[in-house]
Amino acid sequence: MVFADDIRKTILKLADERGAEKTFCPSDVAQAIDQKNWRMLVDQVELVATTLIQEGKLIATNKEPVTFRKK
Asked: pTM of this prediction?
């Protein structure tokens, strides 16, 4: 089972690794968590990312497809 806190940590880790110059998408995060069943996690990743955007820790750079970058 994957918890929101695990997703949050993975998003923030990817954001730190890539820096503010590079973007990443929900599928990158989901694959970092579970390479086999990553498709099932994409909606959860988007939900957690929305919270991080509201907290000012992440920026959404595109709406379709969704991509993020570190703020």
From this structure: 0.90
